[in-house]
Specification:
The protein has 252 residues and is an all-beta fold. Helix content is 2%, strand content 38%.
Amino acid sequence: MTAKLIMSLDGVLIQEYPLSKDRMTIGRKPDNDIVINNLAVSSQHAAIVTIGHDSFMEDLDSTNGLTVNGVPTKKHFLHNNDVIEIGKYMLKYLSDHVSQTSAADFEKTMILRAPLVSYKAPAEKSGDTGFFQKGHAAEPEIKAEVKPEPLPQVDAVPVAAPRPVTLAAIQILNGPNAGKELDLVKGLTTLGKPGVQVAVLTRRPQGFFITHVEGASYPSVNGQVLGGQPHQLQDHDLIELAGIKMEFYFKN
């Protein structure tokens, strides 16, 4: 099923909200996806970002903050039955998907402080040393041993060749790491500077998308400032994020 939030007040169910968009906002203003008309709730209080089957919640610098399972937090990777409390309102997160993603994949964002190393042979390191965050595969690899069963003999039919996998990369255009590139081989790559501006690049069957997830200002593509919804990238698009200019391009 699609993950959803169930809103309640004083134990009384108010409404269910399927997480059908990549980014859904919660706040007092009517243009939010989830509207809570209460003075204790900020105009735009929080956001739920969903990548594939995984969702995480972030506080949008709200006045009164929020808690998850009773603990005040600014950003939280959501698990089934987590309870978000905003003012007196409760939002229970429900999902039947068992995530293969670590919460650290969303919590750590690599910042531009040291030269990047080649991404073609990634080595696991404990610290963050660049502008990029290590991504995670869009779907976990599943291996199983299956004993083939005899099939009835049929005439041979031509088999279509598999579609080539589209490869893409981004290249830094300014700053001390100008000229460095990162192959986008993972399902999710986080870019930016925490507390300033953060976005995620996601790889989907339809192509590559950039989505704003943190910061008061939004990234831009080809000089146009993006909104809160995912934006599909085209070959040789120019991205500007946290003062860093990058070029997105396809490699085949």
